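Below is how a single chain appears once it has passed through the pipeline. First comes the sequence as given, then the structure the pipeline wrote out for it. We keep one example in the README because the format questions we get most often are answered faster by looking than by reading.
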Amino acid sequence: MAQRRVARSPGIRVAIVDDLQLVIDGLSAHLTVGNYGITVVIRARSWADLVSHPEFPPDVTVLDLNLRDGLHLATKIQALRTAGSEVVVMSRHADAASVARAIQAGALGFVPKTDSGADLVEAIRSAAVGKQSLNGTLTAAISGIIASKSPGLGEREQQAISLYSTGRSVRQVATEMMTTEETIKSYIKRARRKYREAGIELGTRVLLRQHGVREGWVDPD
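Resulting structure:
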């Protein structure tokens, strides 16, 4: 088993990643003034801002579930853990499927944004020493949920289906991914087939959006 990172002075080094600056500012202020032994070293509004920051990787990354960046939640969590940062996921919504998926992907905590600052502090402290932290309600919510079989998508297939699930047109996805519409249609078709073989039906835009919300590709609002 790989050795856990040891928090360096002046305490647990934390990154906060959210696309809303007010959320970042509020959480940073709470963690800073509370004398919790936590130092916010990265304040990022996107995945790119996080990984390019000179303080990356932090000891713990507090990651918003709904960054709407087209990246699979599991991919981000695994990348962070590989880099040496434990993960606490936060979200405005805490449905059982989202919580289970985050924990199954390797996050050590899940904190709804409706919870108190004390819950976030506890989750960060637990993650810093490699311990999982979920409140009783969340633990009960995800009990009995079985992890879905991985569809085994390629990187471009994953990006295409993620972006398409947000409501973008094939043309918009093609423009964003700098390729042709026919290529995007092929990616989406293959992705849907692989998901279907894994027991997840995404044949309609409604089903795709619902799955996108569960995965964190789509903002529930």
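The radius of gyration is 18 Å.

See the next section for the split statistics.
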